[in-house]
Amino acid sequence: MNPFLLACLWLGVAQALFARERGWNTVRKRSANDQEDFFPFPANRSSNLSLSTPPKELPQKEVSLDLTRHSKTARIRRHFIEKNCTREKRANIIEAWGSAKKMAKAQTDFRPGYDYNTPHTQWLGKDWNSEPSWIPWKWNYRKLIGDNFRRVEQLFGHDAPTGHQIYWYCYDYGDACHDDKNGVGPAAYSWDRQGDDTFNHLTVFCDDFHSLLEKTIDKLRRWEDAPPHQKIMQRFQGGRGSVMLHEIYHYKHLASNPRTKDFAYYSQACWDLAKDQGTSTAFVNADSYALDALAIYVQQYYKSSMAPVPFNELLKIDPEAAAAIFKKDVEPSDPPMINSSTQSFETTPPNWTGPLVDDDDPEPSVWTELDLDNESSDDPAPSPSPKPSPSPKPSSSSKPSPSPKPSSGPSPVKDENACHGISGDYWVMSRDVALDNVEDFCSQSDKAKTYNTDSVNELELSVKNLNDNSKSPKDSPDCVGRFRGAVLDGCDGADPLNNPHDYKFGSTLTTADGWEYEMTPLSKQVNEVNCDVSYKFLFDHFEVRGKNFPNAKLGAEGGGLHEELKGCGALTKWNFERTPDDCCFQWYASGTLPVGTRACVGRAVMSAGGSGDGNCHGSGKRDGNSSSSIDSWPGYGDDGKHVFRNNVAESR
């Protein structure tokens, strides 16, 4: 054989084996942590070999960075925000980080049974999970995307690489927050900068980020009771959390490698990018990653049958849902396109006049270090201060920081307590935990603070003076007493009929002396039901087990369920009891009904507050392995588990 051809063949085989080994190592590392293979998912590969090449702007081989010079402080990664940020802007940025963290967790965690392949294919292209190729110039997308996911997971966790620091600005020192002809400007822009001992990632949050964008959680709650809208990505894109995650995916080597660019924005354009140009372009588009994470997060939040897609795609996938929206609403659409040239910079923006950092110890008079793992800063937020001295070339689009204003109208003549009500899906399970949070909150200076993140007791507390925006909880008269007497116990306490377990739904208390106290539960409680209806010759015997039904619908000792079941026919041998020793449910009900009522039992369970019919459509035994993920949440298992003491068996 020709020696030249033999050498080429040998090099091709060696390269293929090396690429496959790298891909195997990626799988192996993830598998060791999760006991399950995160990569590969069931791949949706093209039926023919794609020879697509990356966009010409990208390097033609994987880039690495030597970070052997670690930070002197040996911190895993550090976050800083400029001291000139107002309290409001600072709070918006920290809240956005928390939302981005939840989205990233949905994207990078492994949830058994969830079909990750569908959203990944929709937003990152059909070859996102393709096998390594023997073709030297073809990218190993599985490894590259998997490594990006791993880095983002580590960034929000506790094992991000050393030598990286993040800096957030509130003012447009780069003169890049320009509005276009439609009056729409960028929400943020980012770049990377090599320091003396660190690799720094810098983001400017424009005025539109604070004044025009919503919290991601507000978008989710708006469509809580509208399932057709839960399938439309336009309903959820563009929140502060999505913008934060978009910018994070620009952080080179800390999140993405190669560094992502901005080839497309918003759902329809990114969908078309993945479909028409494929993974070769989508895997280096920042908004594709952000929308992929948002799609998974929204679907898991609502427990819906599909992840949200652009409205025009929903017309093809689920015409019935799209038609239901057309009857009442204007067709959803993407916002006007943002000027992409100002969104991402490879290096410091050319017009930059603000402070920069070149070492691992930034100037303390300019920067405040944040402790985002605890969702609060190391020191109290600074008072609002004016924008620094104008730069030689002032930004034409930057707007001065607004002066503090009272956020509400005049104080009421007497105290007013607006209760949230006890029929919703959001509540705090433990009053004692909530009271501990109140005592901590009232002793510090932040006007709003989130506690018990990712647990069944997650809540937000806030206090403000309606006449003086500079006042904090420490300045409030009898802060703990007012929270305890009105917000915690003034609405849903001492109600053995509708709220026998003293769950806390929260309220907003406005006092005559001009203070506002609010508690907002943030954890949607998992409502679960298991049901069995079996034929017993002359009648049907039913058994129902449930957890977290709204007490106003379930009724004291199951009275609401009892009334609903009576509508199915003659109800006999009724029994209801609390089940504190059950691993997975809080109560048990049983009885007999006329033959052929199994579907009616399912409808009765739903009318009494169940999230579904609990499989009430035939005979069979309860699945002993069924359990809800809520049981493993912080605050629910062990000492935090809500134990019912009043077991009863009742006949009617």
Describe the structure.
Residues 330-418, 610-641 are annotated as: Disordered. It comes from Cladosporium halotolerans. GO terms for molecular function: metallopeptidase activity. Residues 338-351 have a biased composition (Polar residues). The protein is built from 17 helices and 15 strands. With 652 residues, it is an alpha+beta fold. A six-stranded mixed sheet has the order 3-4-2-1-5-6. A hairpin with a 4-residue loop joins strand 3 (188-194) and strand 4. Mean pLDDT is 75; it is low at 18-76, 334-342, 375-409 and 618-652.
Summarize this structure as a short list of keywords or feature phrases.
alpha+beta, 14% strand, six-stranded mixed beta sheet, globular, five-stranded antiparallel beta sheet, disordered C terminus, 17 helices, 652 residues, Gyrase A, domain 2
Q: What integer is the average pLDDT?
A: 75
Q: Which sequence of strands runs across the widest sheet?
A: 3-4-2-1-5-6
Binned strand content: 5-15%
Radius of gyration: 28 Å
Structural class: alpha+beta
Percentage of residues assigned to helices: 25-40%
Overall CATH class of the domain at 528-640: Alpha Beta
Question: What CATH architecture of the domain at 528-640 do you see?
Answer: 2-Layer Sandwich
Overall body shape: globular
Q: How far from one another are the termini?
A: 93 Å
Would you count the extended β strands for me? 15
Count the helices. How many? 17
Sketch the major β-sheet: 6 strands, mixed
* CATH fold title of the domain at 528-640: Gyrase A, domain 2
Note poorly predicted spans: 18-76, 334-342, 375-409, 618-652
